[in-house]
Automatic annotation (TrEMBL):
Top-level taxon: Eukaryota
Any Gene Ontology CC annotation: cytosol
A GO biological process held by the record: carbohydrate metabolic process
SUPFAM superfamilies: Six-hairpin glycosidases
Domain Glycosyl hydrolase family: 306-799
Protein's UniProt name: Glycoside hydrolase family 92 protein
Residues in the signal sequence: 1-19
Keyword vocabulary terms for this entry: Hydrolase, Signal
Amino acid sequence: MFGAVLILAAAAVTVTVHAQPSPDVQKGIAKAIKNAKNGGKVTDFTAFVNPFIGTDNFGDVCPGASVPFGMVKVTTDNTGYAPAGYVADNTQFIQGVSPLHDSGTGSSLGSYGNFKIMPQFCPGGFNTCKTILSQRQRLRKNNTDFASPGYFAQTLDNDIKIEATATRRAALERFTFPEGTPFFSVDLGNDSPLSFGGGSLDFDPAAGRIKIGGRWRPSFGPSLFFYQAFACYDILDNGKQTLGEFGVWTADNFGMDAKALGQTHLNLSINLIGSSPYQSGALFSLAGNPSEVNIRVGVSFVSADQACQNAETEIGMSSFEEIQDLAVSQWNDKLSRIELDVARSAPNITEIFYSSYYRSFLTPNNATGEGSGAFAGTTSPYFDSLYCSWDTFRTWAPLLSLTSPVDYAEVVENYIDGWRKNGVIPECRSNQLPGWTQGGSDGTNILADFAVKYHAEAASLGVDLNEMFTALLSDGEENPPEWNTGGRQINVYKAHGFVPFAAFDATSTGRQTREGSRTLEYAMNDFGIRQVAQVLGHADEVTTYTNRSTWFKNVWDPTVKSDGFEGFMQKRFGNGTFKNLNPVDCSPLDTNSSRACSLTQDNQNGFYESSSWEYSFFAPQDMATLVDLMGGNETFVKRLDHFFNKGYYLAGNEPSFGTPSAYHYADHPAKSVQRGRQVLFENFDITAGGLPGNDDQAAMATFAAFHILGLFPIPSTTQFLLISPFVPSYTVHNPHLGVSTTVTVDGFDPASVKRKIPDGAAAYVANVTVNGVPSVTGRCFIDFFDTFKKGGNITITVTSNMDEADSCEGSLPDSLSTGGWASAR
Ligand SMILES: *[C@@H]1O[C@H](CO)[C@@H](O)[C@H](O)[C@H]1NC(C)=O
Ligand SMILES: *[C@@H]1O[C@H](CO)[C@@H](O)[C@H](O)[C@H]1NC(C)=O
Ligand SMILES: *[C@@H]1O[C@H](CO)[C@@H](O)[C@H](O)[C@H]1NC(C)=O
Ligand SMILES: *[C@@H]1O[C@H](CO)[C@@H](O)[C@H](O)[C@H]1NC(C)=O
Ligand SMILES: *[C@@H]1O[C@H](CO)[C@@H](O)[C@H](O)[C@H]1NC(C)=O
Ligand SMILES: *[C@@H]1O[C@H](CO)[C@@H](O)[C@H](O)[C@H]1NC(C)=O
Ligand SMILES: *[C@@H]1O[C@H](CO)[C@@H](O)[C@H](O)[C@H]1NC(C)=O
Ligand SMILES: *[C@@H]1O[C@H](CO)[C@@H](O)[C@H](O)[C@H]1NC(C)=O
Ligand SMILES: *[C@@H]1O[C@H](CO)[C@@H](O)[C@H](O)[C@H]1NC(C)=O
Ligand SMILES: *[C@@H]1O[C@H](CO)[C@@H](O)[C@H](O)[C@H]1NC(C)=O
């Protein structure tokens, strides 16, 4: 999300290497890998994770301390463009440490960052403390930021060290002061987007407890609405610390600096004058000059009392180390589900893989028991930050499906519950509120992917497939009066067979843009519905939705030419006439830097954050038709080559995800192998700037992880394209099913793990066996039910002879138009 916009903006900026994080992060990982290479048994998979990948160059990754799917991701909040709070850029200032963050979301304003606490020295006592952000902010010491799963640390330039660890809804923070009296300011109002809409703070000096609650605006949705959030700070470390001075403050950037020693209450309503809200909070010191201070904070979206309870039940009297150990063991439970052969894999690949796999469990945020508004008291699992399904349906959900049906079922039930409560399947829930819909209603494909793989287990995992189908049909048939934040513009889509441009629609309201890309996505959404109808045996709906799945063809304009290629997707008037626009518009090669390509009404090009060049390859459900439309296998391959070579490809943008492996559909799988290697090495590495754009809630992470595994998922289906693993072997564990699957690359050549596969290096898939017999689906793809669902062995024999391997030997991956997906598995 916002990917393309940021990339276009960032293209001109040189990436600078910042003096963060600490070299110890890389040293620790290198040591763990070396140990594995020396024959050590791998027991701690967190040792391979670098949480700082994606914290520079607009990756928007949160390196904060978290547990898997943690609602709390505790890190410091930095000045500048820092949607996740932290950035590696050490020219940015630290304004406090706070418990709530999202990871990898591209909101330009930032998300959460509420309830900051800032340690400081106030040598002249209470009245000399700096309270507002601009005065209290500090730089950090170079080369000191450190993080590992469940742990975050940073040292300010005044030598105060901040450490944090987390549970799902609480954090434990340890501050080490080199000398003097520790002072802390705690914010009532300042979140990252500075969107405070009123709230209150109560300081109970006897209990050493500060309760805070208020309302803020979402980071990616209509600013009309507010979400509520609460925190509970316990500042006396279960009686081991003694309160010194305390009170509250209000201040601004124009000279006001009011402190009230001994006062304990703040209650502010929304400030209607001026764009920047006033800043207020609590201020306190601890007596006796302790050098180490422990502070516990619980958060809740329900109430301040629940925030206190969350801290009590999840942390209680436990020590920092105990909570950190608990977090590490939860991470190992997840990360050990895919075991790479670390001993024989390239160290950078191991690090990219486990860091990516880690981030895949960092989102969405598990806010179960914390629903508010329509979700108050819901008995379903509740997840915050589905941000956006447009990003996550392609690779994030399919990666979860490999190992973690229990987690996936909870996410699915949460989507169904979203429909139950709001009448639409959530598309981009951000800060608990409906966020902007970017294209289609892509939650449909997240539900469908689960249903096709786990229909036999669904009921026992708490998912009612019949209810899911009702929700899907509602998405496919019912036109919400307002589709900007959920659902689709169904009536006109059904009437025309595409989303028309400039057509009168009396039945629904929404921003009338992106007609080309919305049509392509609506067709993919319809395919998701078709797949679930097939699983449930609803023949009529299979017919209807199979037809609708092919409507992407309806925006194909065969007459448009670009760079010698003929035929592109285009937006289309209601009368059927195409609105001809240059397919290059909104691509990286667009020379018009002021063109609008995103959600605003002046986006005229018909595609969202993308060009027609890019989106014209998007029909995962029926790639065979695209190959035909584009003029057959050889032209299709030429066009893909041109797409990459000329620079239309945008690795950091989700609609491009399927293009590196699209050669499969033109019967040139070996070309997908070459392109996959190139794309990974050109766009991903182990540095803080090592992502091609914002992680988009682990969309980038899971794209990279799949390429390393040599697979690419076709969402809402049980098929995975076989590319070529970057590692000699790995084992995928599915603890719920009780099965493990080992993938072995026979003939693996480490020399092939490069941007350009050298001549003579084996990397191309010659043949594939599953449990000792030749794969029934050939060498271009595998089916979940034949492999990961059953467990066992997959042996992929690779060859250096590209020509010998560059065909699917008559077994192309499925496409609807060639009879694909004829029956449910
Ligand atoms: C960090 O290093 C840069 C030079 O690379 C220097 O300008 C800056 O002052 C240093 N920051 C601190 C806090 O020492
Ligand atoms: C804050 O003030 C408002 C308006 O006076 C009042 O309704 C509300 O109860 C107060 N809240 C707290 C927590 O004191
Ligand atoms: C979310 O939290 C609830 C409550 O602690 C827990 O039961 C559930 O397993 C969690 N879900 C995931 C996916 O971790
Ligand atoms: C399939 O969709 C087209 C619109 O593209 C429509 O004209 C046709 O009637 C549909 N066919 C069936 C069998 O539903
Ligand atoms: C269709 O509508 C567009 C926009 O009003 C118009 O420019 C075009 O000429 C129309 N085409 C036909 C065939 O009437
Ligand atoms: C750039 O694109 C915008 C439309 O978004 C258009 O108004 C403007 O004229 C274009 N500029 C040039 C130089 O083509
Ligand atoms: C592409 O190649 C496949 C496999 O050889 C073949 O079945 C198909 O007909 C070809 N498609 C076109 C449009 O040439
Ligand atoms: C590993 O990554 C680092 C940082 O991107 C790079 O400098 C180094 O060359 C890479 N090593 C290999 C063997 O690719
Ligand atoms: C598999 O591929 C390898 C390498 O090309 C070849 O030597 C072997 O004979 C093939 N096996 C089968 C069963 O086709
Ligand atoms: C997988 O391979 C291992 C090692 O060769 C073997 O012990 C096991 O029986 C195989 N499993 C299946 C299901 O073929």
